[in-house]
Amino acid sequence: MTCSPLPSTSSSSAPREESAKRAEQARALCLRLLTARARTRAELEAQLVKRGYPDDVSAEVLDRLTRAGLVDDEDFAEQWVRSRRVNAGKGRRALAAELRTKGVDDEVIVAALAGVDAGAERMRAEHLVRDRLRRERLGDPGDREAENKVTRRLVGMLARRGYDQSMALDVVTSELANEWERRKV
Question: Taking 80 as the threshold, does the pLDDT of residue 9 lie above it?
Fold first, then answer.
Protein backbone atom coordinates (compact mmCIF):
# COMPACT_ATOMS: atom_id res chain seq x y z
CA MET A 1 0.00 0.00 0.00
CA THR A 2 1.48 3.26 -1.08
CA CYS A 3 0.59 6.57 0.43
CA SER A 4 0.23 9.54 -1.78
CA PRO A 5 1.53 12.81 -0.45
CA LEU A 6 -1.02 15.19 1.02
CA PRO A 7 -1.54 18.51 -0.75
CA SER A 8 0.59 21.31 0.59
CA THR A 9 -1.28 23.59 2.99
CA SER A 10 1.33 26.28 3.07
CA SER A 11 0.03 28.76 0.58
CA SER A 12 0.26 32.50 0.38
CA SER A 13 -2.35 32.83 3.15
CA ALA A 14 0.18 32.04 5.89
CA PRO A 15 2.07 35.37 5.56
CA ARG A 16 -1.25 37.22 5.43
CA GLU A 17 -2.42 35.50 8.59
CA GLU A 18 0.88 36.35 10.31
CA SER A 19 0.53 39.98 9.24
CA ALA A 20 -3.04 40.10 10.52
CA LYS A 21 -1.91 38.58 13.81
CA ARG A 22 0.86 41.21 14.17
CA ALA A 23 -1.63 43.98 13.35
CA GLU A 24 -3.99 42.70 16.03
CA GLN A 25 -1.13 42.58 18.56
CA ALA A 26 -0.14 46.13 17.63
CA ARG A 27 -3.74 47.30 17.98
CA ALA A 28 -4.02 45.65 21.40
CA LEU A 29 -0.80 47.34 22.52
CA CYS A 30 -2.05 50.74 21.38
CA LEU A 31 -5.38 50.24 23.13
CA ARG A 32 -3.61 49.29 26.37
CA LEU A 33 -1.47 52.43 26.14
CA LEU A 34 -4.52 54.58 25.39
CA THR A 35 -6.34 53.11 28.37
CA ALA A 36 -3.76 54.61 30.73
CA ARG A 37 -3.90 58.11 29.17
CA ALA A 38 -4.40 59.88 25.87
CA ARG A 39 -1.35 59.72 23.60
CA THR A 40 -0.21 61.31 20.38
CA ARG A 41 0.22 59.41 17.17
CA ALA A 42 3.99 59.89 17.44
CA GLU A 43 4.08 58.41 20.95
CA LEU A 44 2.16 55.33 19.83
CA GLU A 45 4.31 54.99 16.74
CA ALA A 46 7.46 55.14 18.88
CA GLN A 47 6.14 52.38 21.12
CA LEU A 48 5.33 50.20 18.12
CA VAL A 49 8.81 50.75 16.66
CA LYS A 50 10.34 49.98 20.06
CA ARG A 51 8.48 46.67 20.11
CA GLY A 52 9.63 45.79 16.59
CA TYR A 53 6.42 46.17 14.59
CA PRO A 54 6.95 46.83 10.87
CA ASP A 55 6.18 50.32 9.54
CA ASP A 56 3.31 49.13 7.34
CA VAL A 57 1.60 47.38 10.28
CA SER A 58 2.10 50.44 12.50
CA ALA A 59 0.70 52.82 9.89
CA GLU A 60 -2.31 50.59 9.27
CA VAL A 61 -3.13 50.28 12.99
CA LEU A 62 -2.61 53.99 13.70
CA ASP A 63 -4.73 55.01 10.71
CA ARG A 64 -7.49 52.73 11.95
CA LEU A 65 -7.33 54.20 15.47
CA THR A 66 -7.32 57.72 14.04
CA ARG A 67 -10.41 57.00 11.93
CA ALA A 68 -12.10 55.62 15.05
CA GLY A 69 -11.30 58.87 16.89
CA LEU A 70 -9.05 57.25 19.48
CA VAL A 71 -5.92 59.07 18.29
CA ASP A 72 -6.39 62.81 17.76
CA ASP A 73 -3.36 65.06 18.15
CA GLU A 74 -5.43 68.28 18.07
CA ASP A 75 -7.66 67.11 20.91
CA PHE A 76 -4.65 65.79 22.82
CA ALA A 77 -2.86 69.15 22.53
CA GLU A 78 -5.90 71.11 23.73
CA GLN A 79 -6.39 68.81 26.72
CA TRP A 80 -2.66 68.86 27.52
CA VAL A 81 -2.53 72.67 27.50
CA ARG A 82 -5.63 72.98 29.65
CA SER A 83 -4.46 70.40 32.17
CA ARG A 84 -0.83 71.54 32.47
CA ARG A 85 -1.81 75.20 32.81
CA VAL A 86 -4.21 74.48 35.65
CA ASN A 87 -2.38 71.69 37.48
CA ALA A 88 1.29 72.51 36.90
CA GLY A 89 1.05 76.25 36.22
CA LYS A 90 3.01 75.96 32.98
CA GLY A 91 3.54 78.92 30.67
CA ARG A 92 3.23 78.99 26.88
CA ARG A 93 6.90 78.30 26.20
CA ALA A 94 7.02 75.22 28.45
CA LEU A 95 3.75 73.89 27.05
CA ALA A 96 5.01 74.22 23.49
CA ALA A 97 8.23 72.39 24.39
CA GLU A 98 6.30 69.57 26.09
CA LEU A 99 4.02 69.13 23.10
CA ARG A 100 7.02 69.08 20.73
CA THR A 101 8.60 66.26 22.75
CA LYS A 102 5.34 64.35 22.43
CA GLY A 103 5.55 64.62 18.64
CA VAL A 104 2.79 67.17 18.04
CA ASP A 105 3.12 69.24 14.84
CA ASP A 106 3.94 72.94 15.17
CA GLU A 107 0.65 74.04 13.54
CA VAL A 108 -1.31 72.00 16.10
CA ILE A 109 0.78 73.49 18.93
CA VAL A 110 0.09 77.04 17.73
CA ALA A 111 -3.64 76.30 17.53
CA ALA A 112 -3.70 74.75 21.01
CA LEU A 113 -1.83 77.70 22.54
CA ALA A 114 -4.03 80.27 20.77
CA GLY A 115 -6.51 80.04 23.63
CA VAL A 116 -3.92 81.13 26.19
CA ASP A 117 -3.99 84.90 26.43
CA ALA A 118 -1.32 87.03 28.05
CA GLY A 119 -3.66 88.26 30.78
CA ALA A 120 -4.56 84.74 31.91
CA GLU A 121 -0.91 83.73 31.81
CA ARG A 122 0.06 86.70 33.96
CA MET A 123 -2.73 85.95 36.45
CA ARG A 124 -1.51 82.36 36.76
CA ALA A 125 2.06 83.57 37.35
CA GLU A 126 0.84 86.00 40.03
CA HIS A 127 -1.05 83.20 41.73
CA LEU A 128 2.03 80.93 41.71
CA VAL A 129 4.24 83.67 43.15
CA ARG A 130 1.69 84.60 45.84
CA ASP A 131 1.44 80.98 46.94
CA ARG A 132 5.21 80.62 47.12
CA LEU A 133 5.70 83.97 48.89
CA ARG A 134 3.42 82.96 51.73
CA ARG A 135 5.87 80.16 52.54
CA GLU A 136 9.04 82.24 52.07
CA ARG A 137 11.05 83.79 54.86
CA LEU A 138 11.65 87.31 53.67
CA GLY A 139 13.93 88.53 56.42
CA ASP A 140 13.91 92.13 57.57
CA PRO A 141 12.34 94.85 55.45
CA GLY A 142 15.11 96.64 53.58
CA ASP A 143 17.49 93.66 53.59
CA ARG A 144 18.44 93.90 49.92
CA GLU A 145 20.48 90.71 49.88
CA ALA A 146 17.59 88.58 51.20
CA GLU A 147 15.14 90.33 48.88
CA ASN A 148 17.38 89.71 45.84
CA LYS A 149 17.73 86.06 46.81
CA VAL A 150 13.95 85.61 47.02
CA THR A 151 13.49 87.49 43.74
CA ARG A 152 16.01 85.29 41.93
CA ARG A 153 14.41 82.16 43.33
CA LEU A 154 10.89 83.19 42.28
CA VAL A 155 11.90 84.40 38.81
CA GLY A 156 13.76 81.13 38.33
CA MET A 157 10.66 79.16 39.35
CA LEU A 158 8.57 81.01 36.77
CA ALA A 159 11.25 80.68 34.08
CA ARG A 160 11.41 76.91 34.61
CA ARG A 161 7.65 76.78 34.15
CA GLY A 162 7.94 78.55 30.80
CA TYR A 163 7.04 82.14 31.62
CA ASP A 164 8.73 85.06 29.85
CA GLN A 165 11.58 86.39 31.96
CA SER A 166 10.61 90.07 31.80
CA MET A 167 7.02 89.29 32.76
CA ALA A 168 8.26 87.01 35.54
CA LEU A 169 10.48 89.75 36.98
CA ASP A 170 7.62 92.25 36.81
CA VAL A 171 5.22 89.83 38.54
CA VAL A 172 7.74 88.92 41.26
CA THR A 173 8.58 92.58 41.95
CA SER A 174 4.95 93.63 42.31
CA GLU A 175 3.92 90.56 44.32
CA LEU A 176 6.93 90.96 46.61
CA ALA A 177 5.92 94.56 47.30
CA ASN A 178 2.35 93.41 48.01
CA GLU A 179 3.63 90.73 50.39
CA TRP A 180 5.74 93.28 52.30
CA GLU A 181 2.60 95.43 52.67
CA ARG A 182 0.54 92.46 53.81
CA ARG A 183 3.13 91.48 56.43
CA LYS A 184 3.27 95.01 57.81
CA VAL A 185 -0.30 94.79 58.96
Answer: no
